[in-house]
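Task: sequence design from structure.
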């Protein structure tokens, strides 16, 4: 599967809300379907890829490949960590590094060709990150 990695920007933008809350790095991933446009459904099985020391600008317009690899020109970026979203739409993550910038790519399980990107410059403070994929 080849996809072009872009930040969440389209006609009806997927919502991505980083919010600082209690200790820990929590990622929540949900989707909306056309049959129930007011219901957020957990995107169970969605994949979360973490790239340390990489800013999201380095990945934009790269080719997203299986396993979270992103190829841009002659450079291949490999994820440092990979997680799957649980049935409740959430996963708690312990970052490998708190002192490095990190880009996160989320691959929707429901909308199989959809990606969302998040960028964090400082991981020393707690983060609660929510991604919502729209039809």
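Answer:
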């Amino acid at each position: 599967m080849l996809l072009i990695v872009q930040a969440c920007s389209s006609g009806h933008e997927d919502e991505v809300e980083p919010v600082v809350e209690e200790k820990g790095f929590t990622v929540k991933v949900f989707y909306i379907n056309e049959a129930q446009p007011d219901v957020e459904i957990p995107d169970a099985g969605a994949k979360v890829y973490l790239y340390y020391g990489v800013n999201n600008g380095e990945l934009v317009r790269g080719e997203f490949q299986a396993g979270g690899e992103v190829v841009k020109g002659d450079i291949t970026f490999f994820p440092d960590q990979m997680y799957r979203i649980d049935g409740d739409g959430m996963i708690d993550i312990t970052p490998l590094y708190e002192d490095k910038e990190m880009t996160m790519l989320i691959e929707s399980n429901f909308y199989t060709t959809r990606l969302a990107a998040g960028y964090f410059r400082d991981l020393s403070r707690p983060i609660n990150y929510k991604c919502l994929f729209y039809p």
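The chain has one domain: 3-133.
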